[in-house]
Design a protein that fits this description.
Distance between the termini: 22 Å
Shape: elongated
Strand order of the largest sheet: 2-1-3-4-5
CATH architecture of the largest domain: 3-Layer(aba) Sandwich
CATH superfamily of the largest domain: Response regulator
Order of helices and strands: EHEHEHEHEHEEEEHEHHEE
Strand content: 15-25%
Number of domains: 2
CATH class of the largest domain: Alpha Beta
Structural class: alpha/beta
Radius of gyration: 25 Å
């Protein structure tokens, strides 16, 4: 499993060393620098999951670094570290886009707990489908652009096949009868044979399931169909 990477920008070498050792002990990959300019360069050159940023730094303040990162659209979580404990200092940092604010001296257990909380939140947000996007396993669909992708491969479906796929995905894990599918995909005023559902499910499977190792659409004998990811 890939370790989460944390950048420490702290000018006090003793504090930076302790933070690095504690973070590595907790299973993170940590790197420390001691000036504002070094910190900004490291941020720009590599990918980080979180930044511990001291406010008082030589060459460039932590507040300036925070402002530059956020002004260019950077969303990396940032915890400010500072000896300043006035409300106005904290408000300024939070208003500029800091995720949290820890006052020195601090207990390492508290800092680690805050780091875990922020990383859980950002991980959850990253995994959450965006508006208009659906995902089941490695199958992703954008309902706005009608783009379909599975395992990095773009797929093409007819409008009716697309509607059927979307209905199955929106009800992931739910067994749907042929009548339910017919009503929602073809319309309540459709009076044809329910066999049309079987035909179109077969069409969709040929494009969405058959070229891949794992089938997402499953038949439930005597009832209908269900879409679910492996292990779901």
């Amino acid at each position: 499993m890939t370790k989460e990477r944390i950048l420490i920008i702290e000018d006090e070498a003793s504090i930076a060393r302790v933070l690095k050792l504690e973070l590595e002990y907790e299973g993170y990959e940590a790197h420390s620098v001691h000036t504002g300019s070094e910190g900004l360069s490291c941020y720009r050159e590599e990918q980080w999951d979180l930044i511990l940023l001291d406010v008082m730094l030589p060459e460039m303040s932590g507040t300036d670094i925070l402002s530059r990162i956020r002004s260019t659209g950077g969303q990396t979580p940032i915890i400010m570290l500072t000896a300043r404990d006035t409300v106005s200092d904290k408000v300024q940092g939070l208003d500029l886009g800091a995720n949290d604010y820890v006052t020195k001296p601090f207990q390492i257990e508290e800092l680690l707990a805050r780091i875990r909380a922020i990383l859980r939140t950002t991980s959850s947000m990253a995994n959450k489908p965006k508006e208009g996007e659906l995902q089941v396993g490695d199958l992703q669909v954008n309902t706005k652009t009608r783009e379909i992708c599975r395992d990095g491969r773009s797929l093409e479906l007819t409008p009716r096949e697309f509607d059927l796929l979307i209905f199955l995905m929106k009800h992931e894990g739910q067994v749907l009868s042929r009548e339910q599918i017919l009503d929602h995909v073809w319309g309540y005023d459709y009076y044809g044979d329910t066999n049309v559902v079987d035909v179109y499910v077969r069409y969709v499977r040929k494009k969405v399931d058959y070229p891949f190792d794992v089938a997402l659409i499953q038949t439930v004998r005597g009832v209908g169909y269900v879409m679910k990811a492996p292990g779901g």
